[in-house]
Specification:
Layout: H1 21-31, H2 40-62
Bound molecules: zinc ion.
Length: 63
Amino acid sequence: MSCEHLVCAQCAGPVVEGRCPSCRAGKAKLHHQGPGGLSPAVVVVILLALFFFSLALQHLVGG
Ligand SMILES: [Zn+2]
């Protein structure tokens, strides 16, 4: 996700330059994706790891 082409509604400048408080707030929001600052890709990797871990456990228990 990129914020290079976003224009601020208050100062009409590029949000990425952070000229006014609204720009800085928008920039901060763009760079913090999701709750806890986790990006969707990281969440997918964690879910995959848990999935394979549970498969390995079932294999061990089921023998
Ligand atoms: Zn602005």
